[in-house]
Amino acid sequence: MSAAEICQVLKEGELEKRSDNLLQFWKRKTCVLTTDSLNIYADTQKRTKGKELKLQSIKKVDCVERTGKFVYFTIVTTDNKEIDFRCSGEENCWNAVITMALIDYQNRKAIQDFKTRQDNESASPGQQERPQMPGGQR
């Protein structure tokens, strides 16, 4: 994956994230989705103290529910942590864009892994022998 691919911004805007504390308030966050990660910032102006959620650490986008005003969804990480979000149902919703970015990332990784495996196999052709017949004959 080239540096240009990794830095490409797919979507930028506001999302609301449910806090992890006992009261579970919804907090407005500025988010930037790239081909490699979802960056979540508390400050809309400065974009400081951001959290980066790498696509490689996301297992799936789950529990999509639409109410009158909002679309609610959950991002499940590879360590089974659940992060709840909501966005306005009127705008292009984040859950679909995140899901498509995740699928694209997984496809690129699968192709890269396949090419690596192919390169490794072609670099060592002597390793693959024909199977022997019973009795030690070929």
UniProtKB/TrEMBL annotation:
Function description: Plays a role in regulating placenta growth. May act via its PH domain that competes with other PH domain-containing proteins, thereby preventing their binding to membrane lipids.
SUPFAM superfamilies assigned = PH domain-like (SSF50729)
Q: Which UniProt keywords apply?
A: Cytoplasm, Membrane
> Which GO terms of the molecular function aspect are on file?
phosphatidylinositol phosphate binding
List the record's Gene Ontology CC terms alphabetically.
cytoplasm; membrane
Any idea what this protein is called?
A: Pleckstrin homology-like domain family A member 2
**Could you tell me which Gene3D superfamilies the record lists for this protein?**
Pleckstrin-homology domain (PH domain)/Phosphotyrosine-binding domain (PTB)
The record, for SMART domains, names: PH (SM00233)
Which portions of the chain have biased composition (kind: Polar residues)?
121-130
* Residue ranges occupied by any PH domain in the UniProt entry: 8-103
* Ranges for region Disordered: 114-138
Stated membrane topology is:
Peripheral membrane protein
* Listed InterPro entries: PH-like_dom_sf, PH_domain, PHLA1/2/3
Q: Which family does it belong to?
A: Belongs to the PHLDA2 family.
What CDD domains does the record tag this protein with?
A: PH
Classification via Pfam families: PH (PF00169)
- Record localization: Cytoplasm; Membrane
